[in-house]
Write a structure and sequence with these properties.
Elements (H helix, E strand, L loop, with lengths): L8 H8 L30 E6 L5 H17 L3 E6 L4 H9 L6 E4 L5 H7 L6 H6 L9 H5 L10 E13 H4 L8 H11 L1 E2 L5 E6 L10 H4 L20 H17 L1 H9 L16 E7 L2 H7 L8 E4 L16 E7 L7 H13 L1 H11 L2 E2 L2 H4 L8 H11 L12 H16 L6 H18 L3
Parallel strand pairs: 1-2, 1-3, 6-7
Antiparallel strand pairs: 3-9, 4-7, 4-8, 4-9, 4-10, 5-6
Amino acid sequence: MRFVPLVAAGSLALSLTACTAGTEAPPLGARPTTTGTGPVAAALPAATLELWHGFSTDAETNAFEQAIAGFTKKYPQIKVTAKKAVQDDQITAAIRGGKAPDVAASFTTDNVAQWCRSGAFQDLTQVIEQDGIDLSVLPEASRSYTEFEGKRCTMPLLADAYGLYYNKALMKGNEPPKTLSELTELTKKLTVRDPDGTIKVAGFIPSFQYYENSPSHLGPMVGAKWYNPDGTSAIGSDPAWKQLLTWQKELVDWYGYDNLEKFRKGLGDEWGSEHPFFEGKVAMAVDGEWRNAMIAADPEAKSMDYGTAPLPVAGDKPDLHGSGFTAGTVIGVPKGAQHPQHAWELIKHLTTDTDSLVTLSNALRNVPTTKAAMESPKLAKDDNFATFLDIFAHPKTSTLPASVNSVFNQDAFSTFLIQWEKGAVKDLGAGLAGVDKRINDKLKLSGG
């Protein structure tokens, strides 16, 4: 699950420019190459590794400890001590101060570009090649969000995939929509209002301010691009964004912005038992695979009859159906790690060992990232979870590509979208061009 708040991109960029190495250890790759696939770790001396991660609940930390135990069973001379509930800013501060852990895992991909570019996380390319790891076992999207400018400084650990959840009772026998026009039609059909227009049940909430309705999660429905090949913003020039926003605004206007806002603001906590999908106040919602586990864990929601499906897509882009958005947990070796070779062996185990990934997925209900783990008979996968495995593996599934200003870019776009859906933007083209300018100006300041 991803509950981590975003770190301000500006502060991260400034902090990383001040990185210090601390006590230098041999860099990754500075080891004799081996023939075949024999484990290098078996020849490494005894060491204690410090691993920082963001998992915090008992179920999460226990699952992570089980995965680590599989590694230490293979390599008993390597001990691993784990520190839980660590945020990105803590990792960055430790690197700056020369007190970096040997291994660090992050719930967000937003800082990968800065970590790779600055050298805050070490490039794994050489050891990946030395150990003959075939990265084609990872879907293209997960390979994309773990590298930047030719440097692979992280590996994907677990992934999130986004699809459509629907309440079967509220659907009244209707099949989940496959296109945006079908979503609009079904939304209108399933929405229940009082005579004064007050919304009692929403077929679907189109607001970008609703829980998981971020532009990054909804953009794949139309195949929208964030960046041009040179890294500049494509939001204003890609017609797919206009297509998505035009569809979205028409549905907002059908509800009435004020009516929709009144309904949205009266809904329960996204992470609590009063979630509107749990309470039958929303028939269809965009959400991640981890919502399945939250439904199963809720005493009242677990009896709900619901289904999952891929996101509906633009009618003129049927090849997108079955795809969606993905991102996930990333893990790497920070600069200044005292035992980088040992650290790599642990990362390799956690990210490529099938049993390790299956253990984590079964406990956390996130998507395992390798094809072997997704196809493992040990993987727990009912129909509702299998939907997200298929979405993650779909060749058209996309992610938000790494950018040195990732958080700023998302915030700039989201700020504009709030104005757009409330009707304060009169010229969509000019407004999106203004978003491009803000993003590109910031990119220049960051040396992009």
